[in-house]
Amino acid sequence: MSLFQLLLIALVQGVTEWLPISSSGHVLLAADYFGLQGRDEYLINSMAHFGTLLAVLLYFWRDIVKALSGLPELALWPARKTPLSPGGALALHITLSLPIALIVIALYEALLPDALKGLLRSVWTVGATTIIFGLALWWADARGARTRTVSTMRVRDSLLIGASQAVAALLPGTSRSGITMTLARALGYERTEAARFSMLIGAPLLAAAGAYALLQLAGTTQPGLATLEDGLIVAGLSFASGFASIFMLMALLKRISFLPFVLYRLALGAILLLGAPFLGLI
């Protein structure tokens, strides 16, 4: 892969990962444009996710430390039956957000035929889901004031928000961050709190994808395939652009609604559905 291709994919991933506009959809389109398919497209995408994971760990390091410090308390909680501390509660909600999505993703990888996977990753799917879930975000965000915080989160909420990640894993264009923020807003959470929890529960999934990609790329010896060096370049660039993206999103959500992101999704979806033949995407 050329340095320009790596640079573009990394920047696209970093900027879009934490915005509710579907990073996987954007990276998939960029990869298709450059002719990346199968193994290379998946692994480079995963390494880009790894870079944005490092960005969220740095930006939310206080929350990460709080959740990690609460894990021992959480492990003893069933026997002690005492109220959890804020750190223990945060660890609980992040933990509860994972199982359903992980099970669905594992079943998807193991059971779905490659032909169906290819159909789900088509430009038509990306265009349609970009519009549909953009409208869902608008609906959830426009319902009225939402003031709940993660400190008041219920078990039901973390289960539902976490489970919604499975939809994004199956349908590129949905946006993992977008659908989790949508559900959090629908459940009554304030905008920045919805974004914060979305990013925190995305970290374990991105860590798993990044670790897998590192192992696969490290063993690459066949000429012409993406290498570990390619993956590390993408991860580093995605980290830098991802951190800037998080900073921008959290600052914007203190002042504006999700409407600009909704409008962008509607425009992008329309361009993809109507202009795909002319853009060389099919």
Query: In terms of structural class, how would the helical and strand content be classed?
Result: mainly alpha
Order of helices and strands: HHHHHHHHHHHHHH
In total, how many domains does the architecture comprise? 1
Radius of gyration: 19 Å
Alpha-carbon distance between the two ends? 21 Å
Main pleated sheet: none
Low-confidence stretches: none
Strand fraction band?
under 5%
Characterize the quaternary organization of these chains: single chain
Query: What does the average pLDDT come to?
Result: 84
Shape field: globular
**Tally of separate helices:** 14
Roughly what percent helix? over 70%
Instruction: Count the E strands.
Output: 0
What is shown here, in short?
By secondary structure, the chain is an all-alpha fold.
Explained architecture:
There is one protein chain. The chain has one domain. It has 14 helices and no strands. It has helices at 3-16, 23-34, 38-59, 61-80, 86-96, 99-111, 114-120, 123-141, 155-163, 165-170, 176-186, 191-218, 228-253, 259-279.
Topology, element by element:
Elements: H1 3-16, H2 23-34, H3 38-59, H4 61-80, H5 86-96, H6 99-111, H7 114-120, H8 123-141, H9 155-163, H10 165-170, H11 176-186, H12 191-218, H13 228-253, H14 259-279
Helix pairs in contact: 1-2, 1-3, 1-13, 3-12, 3-13, 4-5, 5-9, 8-11, 8-14, 9-11, 11-12, 12-13
